[in-house]
Protein: Fructose-bisphosphate aldolase
Organism: Papaver somniferum
Amino acid sequence: MASASLFKSSAVLDKSDFFKGQSLRQPSAYVGRRNAVAPSALTVRAGSYADELVKTAKSIATPGRGIMAMDESNATCGKRLASIGLENTEANRQAYRTLLVSAPGLGNYVSGAILFEETLYQSTVDGKKIVDILAEQNIIPGIKTDKGLVPLAGSNDESWCQGLDGLSSRSAAYYQQGARFCKWRTVVSIPNGPSALAVKEAAWGLARYAAISQDNGLVPIVEPEILLDGEHGIERTFEVAQQVWAEVFFYLAQNNVMYEGILLKPSMVTPGAECKERNTPEQVADYTLKLLNRRIPPAFLSGGQSEVEATLNLNAMNQSPNPWHVSFSYARALQNTCLKTWGGRPENVKAAQDALLTRAKANSLAQLGKYTGEGESDESKEGMYVKNYSY
């Protein structure tokens, strides 16, 4: 939750609303209740950072703005650079990240930027600290704190997210460097189950990460990513997402996480990338809002979709009545056209930044439910799905 004060209804889910031990292969007709809980009934451990966490969450969730995810690992950033014929060197990564954060007026549409560790400590090509450039744009720096996905023993070829060891000391150091929120990428695969073991591991890991992050002054983005891989329809995604989020909130409560000081990032409820039946933005919006209503007390939404598709889906959600601040947290859906326009050439920086601002403004309008889709290029409509995506 970004902050209870950001919503038309400030409610949290009672632990009795969560069901445990069910296989995710079984359908459920359960509908989560929203029971208001007095603050005194909650035990939270955010310590001396409690007020700051709420302030940070509110600042990120301001109308018409969202999050730019630029936290790809150096290896994945190298793949992006290779697509435009550039070598994966720190200088080239620095040049690309400089292009992104220094786009004039970006802060009008972006409230937070998730960085990779190298970027948090990096300077621009002009020698200014990247965190300082972001601050000048009124963009809050964030940091990816996990250590990547590894195989989960005993599961159906599924993964778990490592990085809890040493997380407290790393988080404290990131805070000192200027980060004020963080991201932890764990995933759930529908084609591979998902098994009860994998879902429980994802939910528990997210809850421990969230508690440790808050204890060190960082607002955690809580995101159990439902992967796009598979041939399943939108109903199957909806079913799995409901059960995953029930598990996540159960463990958040057990770990005394302060709900007012977190940001939720549910994946949009869409069919699998290989499903033959496609759904309209209105259908995606309906299923996603239905999920939020049943399971979740605010939301940042992401994709793997085309730039325009992601924006249209976000716009449709904000044209329907809902009690949340529903915004965006995009990487490729903001940067894909920008990267191709740049091509590694200094003379293209201005055009590339203009492309970035075009996408950022489009999603700003979508957050307000005012996006029309007029004048979009063919390139922005190209899909960006990558099977078994990792970064």
